[in-house]
Amino acid sequence: MISRGFVVILALLAAPAAAHADGDAAAGQKVFLKCKACHQIGENAKNAVGPELNGLFGRHSGSVEGYKYSDANKNSGIVWDETVFREYIRNPKAKVPGTKMSFPGLKDDKDIDNIVAYLKQFGPDGKKM
Q1: pLDDT per position as a tens digit, 1-50
Q2: Does residue 94 lie in a domain region?
Q3: pLDDT single digits (tens) 102-129
Q4: Alpha-carbon 15 to chain mean position
Q5: Total structural domains in the chain?
Q6: How far is it, in rounded angstroms, from Cα 73 to Cα 81?
């Protein structure tokens, strides 16, 4: 039988790992500098080389009005959630063969955690939630 104290210790040991997985939005803003040449986010965001990224999570791939997507992205069937985004941002061309996104990807899990936290702050209207 497992003692209550042992369970509490396990929970405390797991807490830092869970916090890390959530990411740091301020650090994610710095990581976003790698994306900023092509993407905008925030209240005044517009499509540029890539689509604006407001309200990304829960949105269908290829659905930002006024942006000309590759057929691969339009027809991918992707609905952006954290899992799919993490796979995509690690290696866009592997996740969506034929995408016109030329970014080679983020390889560092911490950078990915942080950019997810940063992007999740912005609603579809570009305002921080």
Answers
A1: 555 544 444 444 444 433 335 899 999 999 999 999 999 999 999 999 99
A2: yes
A3: 999 999 999 999 999 999 999 999 999 9
A4: 22
A5: 1
A6: 15
- Cβ neighbours of residue 13 closer than 8 Å, sequence gap 6 or more: none
CATH of the domain at 34: 1.10.760.10
Q: DSSP secondary structure string, 56-116?
A: -TTPBTT-STT----HHHHTS--B--HHHHHHHHH-HHHHSTT----------HHHHHHHH
Closest by alpha carbon to 115, among 48, 41, 64? 41
- Residue 101 backbone dihedrals phi, psi, to 5 degrees: -70, 120
Whether the CB-CB separation of 110 and 103 falls below 8 Å is answered with no
Pull the structure tokens for residue 104.
Answer: 């080679």
For residue 110, count CB atoms less than 10 angstroms from its CB and return exposed for 0-12, middle for 13-18, buried for 19 or more: middle
Amino acid at 30: K
